[in-house]
Amino acid sequence: MVVVVTNKSRRALLANFLRTRRARLSPSQIGLPAGGRRRTPGLRREEVALAAGVSVAYYTWLEQARDLHVSRSVLESIANALRLSADERLHLLQLADHLDAPAPVERQEKREKLDPLLQRLLDSQGMNPAIITGPACDIRAWNRAACAVFGDFSALPEHERNILWLGFVESTFRQRLVGWEDYAQEALAVFRAKSRHVVDDPDVVRLVDELERVSPEFRQWWPQHNVRTVTDPSQEIKHPQVGRLVFEHLSFQVSTHLNLRLCIWLPDPASNTLEKLEELLKWEDADVR
């Protein structure tokens, strides 16, 4: 089954994104007089239109998710008016279909068994925790070091093996994250940016619905439409057995499976994390015996 993002879904995402970016600005931030009291925070539509050099009607149609063919120059003007960051500008252009989108994601009704070569790649990382995730942040595979650091993924029901889910619900993963709120907001912003390609995927819809049901933080942050390309590479873990662990996080798209990503946590060489990982994995081996 091929999951395709419909034009209607893309227009709705674009409209919501513009509204949230408009709501966070004040007139003075774009060089306009403050005027009188406002019933709602942020700029008025006509102020954005004025700053962007487009008609009020045209900008209003964008926020109403009308079927328009917007030129790149108009989008750039709107991005400038809304003071968008580089990541937000990229997101805007992609939502408006002005940048190449990835090919539609092939989704199997029953998840296929992972390529053994990818599992070997994970296992070859040794002391470096490593996982492979799917398009909905679902954890498809992991190595021993990942379980030792973040918790035993194999002990979780399959539907709970999800980075975003584990970051927002009470879990071993969340408990061990230092500064989990910052991490969760960053991970959510990355998910928001990437999910534009799979917004109609039933797995993504189900994940968002479930997180809105169980997590007050998710309910608060998801409507904000914040986006970013990557999370902060630095990540700190407070482990119950070995204490503080400090990592640098990297992720890569798997070229032979474009809907999968390889995520690796490298021990910070300025810390004693590597020595602690060696100790931790020795304990894990002793427990297995």
TrEMBL record:
Domain of life of the organism encoding this protein: Bacteria
Extent of the signal sequence: none
Descriptive protein name: Transcriptional regulator
InterPro entries per UniProt: Cro/C1-type_HTH, Lambda_DNA-bd_dom_sf, MLTR_LBD
Transmembrane segments: none
Molecular function (Gene Ontology), one example: DNA binding
HTH cro/C1-type domain: residues covered: 17-89
Organism from which the protein derives: Ktedonosporobacter rubrisoli
